[in-house]
Each structure stands twice: as C-alpha cells, then as structure tokens.
Amino acid sequence: MRCRFQSKQNTLALGGVDDPQRLGSVPVQMRRSIVKIISDSALQALVSMTLAVFWIAPASAQVDSGPTVLIDQWQGFWLGQSIGNWTGLITEMDKVGGQGRQGEFYTRQDWAGLDEPAIWSDKPSEISNTIDFVLRRPSETWGADDDTDIEYMYLWTMHRLGKAKLTPHEIKEAWLRHIYDEKTPTPFGVDESGYQNYLWVSNQAAHALMLEGVVPPQTSAPSNNPHGDMIDAQLTTEIFGLLASGRPGVALDLAYLPVRTAGDGDAVLAAEFYIVLHALAAEHPRGSVTTEALFDLAQAARKHLPEGSTPALMFDFIRARYDAGFSWEETRDALYLRYQVQQRDGYSVTQRGLYCNGCFASGINFAASLVSLFYGGGDLKETIKIATLCGWDSDNPAATWGGLLGFMMGRSEIERLFGESLSDNFDIHRTRKGFAEDGIDTFGNMAKMAMTVSRTVNNEYLTSPE
Hints:
It is a single chain. The chain contains 18 helices and five strands. The two termini are 41 Å apart. By secondary structure, the protein is mostly helical. Helices cover 48% and strands 3% of the residues. The strands form two sheets. A three-stranded mixed β-sheet has the order 1-4-5. Helix 10 crosses helix 11 and helix 15 packs antiparallel against helix 16.
C-alpha cells in the first residue's frame, strides 16, 4: 500500500441562487413544538418553512447577509484558501526540525528572502525562489491542490446529488470518479511510489482501500489504514463548517464520514476543531476581523476538544505562550521541543521512527497552525506570513486560515488589502478529473454552488435541535 511519505511532488503549473436560510439555534425547540401539534403533514411542512424564514440567524449575523454579500464571502473563502495554499507551498517541508538545515527554522526576517529546498529536494521551490505572497491576476488561473481539491469534490458532489449528507458509498463513488488510480498512468507522470495522483499518506491509503471496495469509516480504521493520525482529514473538511453557518453540531454531522474517510483518533479532533471554528466564524458579519473576535471564536471552538486530549493540551500550551508575551518564533521553537523532542502531552509520533519524524502528522501541524492563528490575530496577511514561515506542512495552515479569514472578510476586502483585482479562475483538473468544462471553474460559480448546498443543509436539518 502506497504511503508517499517521501515526496510531495510540486508539479506547479498554477493553473441566480437564493440566499440560504441561516437558521439560528435558540428558536429551534420552539419551532419543533409548534410543528408537532399540527396533525396535517402538508401543513406541518408549510409551517416549518414559514418559521424558518422568520427565525433565522441571530441579528448580529444578519447585518448584511444577502445573496450578494454571501457570494462575496464564499469567493473570499476560495480566494483566501488559494493565496494561502500557494504561498505556503513555497516553504512546504523546508523546516521540520532535526539536524542540518531542516532544523534551522525560518523567522520573520526570512519573509521576502530566499527559499530553501524542501527535505526531498536540493533546489528552491518551483513556485518562487523567494518567500512572498503568490497572487494570480485576472488573466491567470489558480491551480487546485490537496488543500482545496477534496473540498471542491465534496461540494460539487453534494450539489450534483442535491443532498446535504453523503453516504459511505457516495463518498467512495466520488473519490473513484474524480481521483486518478495510482496503479495506472496519469497525466502527472511518476514519482518514487508510482504514478502521481496527488494523494499522500492517509488519503492515499484510503483511496487504495476504496479501489478494493472498502467504504468510510473503515478506510481510516487502524486495522486497515496505519496513517489515520496524519494530517489528511484536517485539510479536506473545513468547508463543512461554512455550509452549516452558526450550527457546529450540524456541521459535525455533515462531516462525520468525510473526516473519518482518512482520519482517526486525535486527527479527528483536530479536523473537528477546524470545522467548529468555521461554523462559528460564518456568523461573523462580513468585514475586518479583530483579534478579540478571533480569540472568542477560537475559545468557543476549544470547548469541543475533550479536556486532557492532546489537541486540547496543545491549544492551551500555545495560547498560554501567546498570553505570556512570547514571540511566535519562540512559541514555535517551544512546541517543537515539547512535542517532537520531549513527546509531551501524549504526543508520541517521534518514537515511531517515521520519515521526517512524522512531519506530515496531524498533531505537530495542528499545533503549528495555532501559532499562526493566534499570532496572526485576524490579519490575513500576517496570518499567512506566519503560517508560511512556521514550518512543517506550511501550506496546510496557510490555506486553512486563508479560507477562514477570507470568508469572514469577503473577496472584495481581500482585493482591497492586496491593492489589485485577482483571478477567480480555478483549475480543478490540475489534480483531479471528471468535472465539467474540462475542470475550469470560477469562484463565483463555486460560491453559488455553496449557497445552494447551504440551503439544502438548512432544509434537511430544519428541525435539528441546535
């Protein structure tokens, strides 16, 4: 079974919807009670829909939640993810700890400086020789990567099927329809493990199992997949939080099987933290994000992590370092020592002797992502900078927080921040297959798909007690 630990090949050719009903949490029990006392089923459905129209999201979240604003926010999600993803790819796996240059971590002074080779290469990144923002102008196209393509695949499949929650067999069918089989020639050539299909570690193991007929969640069961504690689940499922705006319980239900397609144990908790955070952040009125607002959202999402769990202890450790006034570089160095060297708080990946000391693991990358989240303080540019320089699988947190903050800000605010218009063209066929228009889509169309799916979510979970 293919693991693809040793090389994430950067083949780097960058390549009229109604407003969804955003149902709030407080009135749901009352709404259910009213519906229950009505005996006629047709009338029940009519009353349910009527109540949904009036009892929607909290007033603070409806300041400007019309269709135009939501389209701008969803485009901001995809644009922010793409900027973070491709900027973070420049430094992906340059710095992972240990001996030699890979253990000499970047600092703030390295921004706009020369990129150093990743652990699998002796050359700088093919994207850029310097560490700086990657931007694509209107005549150019953003390429898909594993931080965006699986989310696109889930969104497209939910939209095509007209349903909110995918079954195990629907997930398997989507993976097999849109992901190349590594055992047969692909358009992407070969790497040391076989034909390139832009899957690695747990995702690759899950896909191989699906080709044998196995379906989620058995595709991440330790008896079938030894890589369930790697990073895969937390970079492919954040979108489910935004699809259930303000309803983290619904978001977790939607994402239950997608998370467990490749994630197990603490990797599930890390992925679910991201999902809850996105669901809560989706209620934030569009615009700039204050540090206070961001920290309130993060602390609310922290409540999902069980006390004493490794992800919870990581969160508390990094938050305490931030509160104590340490720099982000000092905190990053401290988390490296605490988790990859000392193996504290139940984090024991090092003792397994994995390639690059488990640099693809969920835990160390979850901890690193919290550094950029806290020290970025809601500033999109600063957050992506820190994520890019922090180390390990740097494109993952850069993409995750780029998408989160991008949704909260909206595309128009991102473009104002960078002082120019940016591309909304997206090439999903850079890594995947089987989509319309030869894989060329736009953020505008992707936003409309998301709004339609969000409406489907709200309709299917109309009486959910959240």
